[in-house]
Specification:
By secondary structure, the protein is α/β, with parallel strands linked by helices. The protein has 21 helices and 26 strands. The protein has three domains: 271 residues, Alpha-Beta Barrel (TIM Barrel); 130 residues, 2,3-Dihydroxybiphenyl 1,2-Dioxygenase, domain 1; 192 residues, 2,3-Dihydroxybiphenyl 1,2-Dioxygenase, domain 1, CATH 3.10.180.
Length: 632
């Protein structure tokens, strides 16, 4: 299949959209009619622009309110089509895209509609053009692709074919199996869009909530299975209406669009058991085995204070880099790298963001394979300066320009800590922390779908339903992504992506104070949170205070003794349960720049303490204002 994208997906004027589409690697484009009408150049000039950019114009769409009109308006509709044929020929396209009518004047009846298309097909044949018919989910008479196909079939014209759009089909929950029986030469165009599953009218859902394949909840794999069964090898085109995309960078959205189609065709090939035409060869998605290390960029002047905090948290310095101003701190299976180099990537990152997480390393079965997959998916590789005898750890750019490293146990990469570091005898007793439970990344709201696609396309993942968390300054959208074995903390990868449209939430303040997206907090696991938090307090770690009202409410609703509630209150520990078990969480104070640590105990519990999120955000809001949490 050949890939394409509609200009309606992107922000900007027509030229900006076309340049972004070509820059992303597309070779074909659907021009949305409104983009052409609003652009101050003739169709011939637009065609030359597309030629210069290496873009083929698939169609200029849509052509509306054609079929089922009263006799006195039928000829006028056919004449309108002739003018559209003129326009399409100037653009170098041969496909008239007709969407099903929503006119109150349109009448039904498959045979009557088929007659209209038979007449249109005759005119198309004289112009060496084709006509594609799409069933809109909110069409007045035709809203089911099976009825649209029957209209096409009964027209009797080989110049009339069907346009399949995954949104219009799957938003209505229509059976996909009939697609398998369509002759491929009568499928003139296929449009794909994903979307979250929502309860709303089809038009609003379509106009505001479509998203790229891999970013929503639709069964695009099943849609592609049915399409592949037909042998279809024409254009697979994105048509996405999304408010976030219109507010974002056209080049970024176009690149994500190309990545999403590469991912979709790779998924289809793997389900099909053979390469689908147009699919890019690449290794399969990787299972993340663990977070191998987390790297902080820290200025030399701030290093003593940051490493003092690590020591108070129970970390011990166990390694000193052989050639760089970098230390390794460990506790249990948690490894934190503190990079205070005066040049290089971490230094540049620190200048922009202050003390912060500049990189994260993931252990996967095959680092070379996941690197090859990342490159095939258009992710940006990174190569840093390597000293003599040091390992060259493969990496790609991640959230906020940070790095995502890949390590495996089967190659020399598995010995990174002994190859690159001189051992140091630890002198700090641990506090019972043994694993990275999850990592929370905060980003611009418009970026959330980008990074959801990034992780979903690269790794074997599952994700939970997006949640809205109440912050004192507004609503924060939160999306969880999980990969690998998640039976216990320290196995696999848990990520929480957060973004907010409000400029007053803690998430937004982090972005603007941090100068971009990044890791806002890391959750560290313990088997005994009371013992761990008590030790941290004794070590001098500031624990975020929680309001008394929380614990009075907890005593009334939780199956806990008064003594247990009192113990949690004393240590400022929050509590939640699900059908699998209990969850305990506490938070350190917030560092300059907005970063903090979370301490968690997970007793079979599968979530992230979402019911407590508003409590934590309010407590952090009080702390940010320098006010104590009100108590009685």
């Amino acid at each position: 299949m050949k890939t394409s994208i509609a200009t309606v997906c992107l922000a900007g004027n027509l030229l900006e959209k076309l340049e972004a589409i070509a820059s992303a690697g597309f070779k074909a484009v659907e021009i949305f009619e409104n983009d052409l009408i609003a652009y101050p150049a003739s169709p011939n000039q637009v065609r030359r622009i597309c030629d210069d950019l290496g873009l083929t114009v698939v169609t200029c769409q849509p052509f509306r309110e054609f079929e089922g009109l009263p006799d006195d308006k039928r000829i006028k509709a056919l004449d309108r089509a002739e003018r559209k044929f003129d326009l399409l020929q100037e653009l170098g396209s041969d496909l008239l895209f007709v969407c099903s009518s929503v006119s109150t004047e349109a009448s039904g009846g498959i045979d009557r509609l088929a007659e209209d298309f038979a007449m249109l097909g005759e005119r198309a044949a004289k112009r060496n053009m084709r006509v594609g018919y799409e069933a809109l989910a909110w069409g007045k008479q035709i809203f089911d692709y099976r009825d649209a196909w029957e209209v096409v079939r009964r027209s009797g014209s080989d110049r009339v074919g069907i346009v399949l759009d995954s949104f219009h089909i799957q938003s209505r929950g229509t059976d996909l199996k009939p697609i398998r029986n369509f002759p491929k030469d009568r499928i003139f165009l296929v449009q794909v869009a994903d979307a979250p599953k929502l309860e709303m009218d089809y038009l609003s859902w379509s106009r505001h909530w479509r998203c790229l394949p891999g970013q929503g909840d639709f069964d695009l794999a099943g849609f592609m299975d049915a399409l592949i069964a037909t042998g279809y090898d024409g254009y697979l085109s994105l048509e996405i209406f999304n408010d976030r995309f219109r507010a974002g960078s056209a080049r970024s959205v176009a690149l994500d669009g190309h990545r999403s189609l590469i991912y979709l065709l790779d998924q289809a090939s793997r389900r099909h058991g053979a390469p689908v035409k147009g699919a890019v060869p690449m290794p399969p998605p990787a299972r993340v085995e663990a977070v191998e290390f987390i790297e902080f960029a820290v200025d030399e002047s701030d290093r003593d204070g940051f490493e003092r905090l690590l020591s108070q948290l129970g970390f011990a310095k166990t390694g000193r880099h052989k050639s760089k101003n970098v230390n390794l701190w460990t506790q249990g299976n948690i490894r934190i790298v503190v990079n205070s180099e005066s040049d290089g990537f971490a230094h540049s990152y620190q200048i922009t963001h202050g003390t912060s997480v500049c990189a994260m390393a993931l252990r996967v079965p095959d680092a070379d394979a996941i690197t090859a997959r990342a490159k095939a998916l258009l992710d940006v590789p990174h190569e840093g300066a390597i000293g003599p005898g040091e390992l060259n750890i493969p990496a790609v750019r991640g959230v906020g320009g940070s790095l995502l490293y890949f390590l495996d146990a089967k190659s020399s990469l598995g010995g990174w800590s002994t190859v690159d570091f001189e051992p140091v005898v630890p002198d700090t007793p641990d506090a019972g922390l043994f694993a990275v439970d999850h990592v929370s990344q905060t980003m611009f709201y418009e970026e959330m779908l980008t990074w959801l696609l990034f992780y979903s396309s690269l790794f074997e993942t599952k994700r939970t339903q997006s949640q809205a968390v109440v912050d004192p300054g507004g609503i924060v959208q939160s999306q969880v992504i999980e990969s690998g074995s998640l039976a216990a903390p320290g196995q696999g990868l848990r990520l929480v992506l957060n973004g907010s449209q409000s400029h007053h939430t803690m998430s937004s303040r982090f972005i603007y104070e941090f100068f971009g997206s990044g890791v806002q907090h890391i959750a560290l696991a313990t088997a005994d949170i009371r013992k761990t938090v008590a030790q941290l307090v004794a070590n001098g770690v500031e624990i975020l205070p929680m309001p008394q009202n929380y614990y009075e409410d907890l005593a009334s609703r939780a199956d806990l003794s008064d003594e247990d509630v009192a113990a949690l209150k004393k240590l400022n520990i929050l509590y939640d349960t699900d059908q699998h078990g209990a969850y305990y969480q506490a938070y350190t104070g917030t560092m300059e720049g907005g970063f903090f640590f979370e301490i968690v105990q997970r007793d079979g519990y599968g979530g992230y303490g979402a019911p407590n999120a508003a409590i934590r955000l309010n407590a952090q809001s009080f702390a940010a204002q320098g006010e104590p949490v009100p108590d009685r």
